[in-house]
Specification:
single chain, 253 residues, TIM Barrel, 44% helix, binds sodium ion, alpha/beta, eight-stranded mixed β-barrel, globular, binds manganese (II) ion, binds guanosine-5'-monophosphate
């Protein structure tokens, strides 16, 4: 509850920032996209991790204005990359609470229009952490978003929250394989077999694949050999401030 009351004033007090973690093509190493991740620097308690405050923000529905702020910040940042010639996709975590909200589609379109970012460079990452009050409405909104070119990614794929049933229900473009499936691939035959099966399924259904939590060159080369499309993790980079990310993509060229 202390966090809940702090969350209410955090936006007005400018306590949030957004950091960007680069993702690269598993074959070429080229930076294809960046995941936007919120950070909260509380005036008294210091840095509070999203895992602690996002669930509270969802319960109290304050995630709606916070999520809109993250989305606008990330889309504006991506426009700066594009203006400098770096055609990189920005991936933003979206809570299902935000998607169920009735003006969500219009808000997203408006943010794109006011910023001038093309919709195909925005990807929305979804994980279902809370029970939905109106799942049909969410599917309708996701279909609308998809129809204007926005990409939909299933985050933490393979975990309890993000199961196969998502791929049936939602208009998905990208599967982000949870890092628990990547962690042991360099030394566990069974983990490699599971990953391989996942990638074969994804490919035959035309999903783009991202491996999360790639930390070692061994993991990278296994993923690249198995045909995983994109990798994300500390091997390439930790999440970076907007300025650091801009330098990162500029200096890689
Ligand atoms: O960046 P970090 O590893 O601390 O993120 C932890 C979790 O918080 C991740 O599961 C991520 O999806 C979630 N998260 C980070 N930023 C946002 C955000 O802007 N909105 C939502 N809904 N979740 C976020
Ligand atoms: O759940 P989600 O995929 O949105 O979480 C993203 C978070 O995962 C990022 O905030 C980041 O802190 C964390 N992360 C990114 N790369 C790595 C990695 O290579 N190893 C570990 N342990 N965590 C990572
Ligand atoms: Mn994510
Ligand atoms: Na994830």
């Amino acid at each position: 509850t202390r966090l809940a009351s702090g969350l209410k004033s955090a936006l007005a007090r400018n306590e949030f920032t957004v950091v960007y973690q680069p993702l690269c093509d598993a074959k070429t190493g080229e930076v294809t996209s960046a995941e936007a991740l919120i950070r909260w620097n509380h005036s008294k308690m210091g840095l509070i991790p999203p895992n602690e405050f996002i669930p509270i923000a969802e319960e109290t529905r304050i995630i709606i204005p916070i999520g809109e702020w993250v989305l606008r910040s990330a889309v504006q940042e991506a426009k700066r990359w594009h203006d400098a010639g770096h055609m990189i996709i920005v991936a933003v975590n979206i809570s299902c609470i935000q998607l169920e909200e009735c003006h969500c589609y219009q808000k997203i379109q408006q943010i794109l229009a006011e910023t001038g970012l093309e919709p195909q460079f925005l990807e929305l990452e979804i994980t279902e952490r809370v029970a939905l009050s109106n799942p049909e409405e969410m599917i309708r909104i996701l279909n609308n978003l998809r129809s204007i070119g926005i990409k939909i990614a299933i985050d933490d794929f393979g975990t309890g929250y993000s199961s196969l049933s998502y791929l049936k229900k939602y208009p998905v473009h990208t599967i982000k394989i949870d890092r628990s499936f990547i962690q042991d691939i360099a030394f566990e035959v069974r983990d490699r077999a599971m990953l391989k099966a996942l990638l074969i399924m994804a490919k035959s259904l035309n999903f783009s694949t991202v491996a999360e939590g790639v930390e070692t060159p061994e993991q990278f080369s296994i993923l690249s050999d198995m045909g995983c499309n994109v990798v994300q993790g500390f091997l390439l980079s930790t999440p970076l401030s907007g300025e650091e990310f801009f330098n990162f993509i500029t200096n890689r060229r």
